[in-house]
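Title: Request for sanity check on LacI family transcriptional regulator prediction

Description:
We are preparing a figure and want to confirm that the structure record we downloaded matches what your pipeline produces today. Could someone re-run it with the sequence below and paste the raw structure tokens into this thread? We only need the token string, no images.
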Amino acid sequence: MRIRSEGSTVDEVRGQARGRAATPRAGRPRQAEVARLAGVSQTTVSLVLGGKADDVAISAQTRRKVLGAAERLGYVPDPAASRLAAARNNLLGVFSFTATFPTDVQHSYYPFLVGVEQEAAAQGFDLVLFTGSSTGGARAGAHALHRARLADGCLVLGRHAPADQLQRLVDDGFPVVHLGRRDEPEGLAWVGADYVTAARAVVGDLVARGHREVVLVCEDDPVPASTDRERGFHEGLLAAGVPTGPERVHRCADPERDLTPERLRAWLAAGVTAIVVEETDTSAAWRALNAAVSAAGLDCPRDVSLALLGSPPPDHNGPDPTGFDLPRARLGAAAVRALAALVAGGRPDEPLVECAFRPGATVGPPPR
């Protein structure tokens, strides 16, 4: 295919630059051809097209000549050569320790990937997707994350990414960012949601409506995201002058078996008027509690108020839950910015992303 520029074919332009008839050459134009057309050295072309013209004394007129010649020839830089010259691949890894890689739009991690993809493109990186599930996830052995070294840095997803493997990457100076707060390993960069402030706001809304007997339901999985929500729950009660303690928190290893209509009726009989539920990857506790309300013949929020510390599951078809929204796409984008900073030799500067309060329709005044 011939590409025309200002009335001449590319081959004709090349021939004019050589002072003889053009002979078509297979493949992309090279910097040497740009240099001949612009009447400058190949070193000058390399500096201009490599974005390093400001580092040396290259005039604006020379720069325009080089760029004009490159445009006329349809020159496109060789990505492999550019990456070798920069001593990196311009690739960011995304390593998932979820059961399946979250490419389904119904998966709670999918919006994270949307933000990751968009920000990676804006930063000029390509993505390499790894999945721990293909090798057994967190039980894959000592080298599951070793493959991430194919990229310039790696973003890690999953509540249970192995600390020993992450520590090995950190100790080796490999750029890695965990999506979600992590207390270990030491030196690991992470980007997470501000669950403490968000949970405190949800509890404050309940207390402002008149609720005093409030219970927090969470799955028995003490990861930082869960402990942050619990901390915000207690802080919200204390800020409103409502006594709190461990008796306010109900942990369940198997929500479907534990959160029964009988359990719900027992709480209501004890004076509980509002139940706050922690969001997880599975939303198991939220689903089980809503099923218990329906099976018990109760109405929400007339008989009991329910609040969700996070976003509802994608297939939720009931009233919009009162709680807060997890900014998954923004978190993904922030994680990529943090990783790009590490790859460039800097440090991340935005570890926490704010969650927006969601008024919803599942909280009302306490029943009389």
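Thanks, this matches our download. The chain has three domains: 4-77, 91-193+329-353, 195-326.
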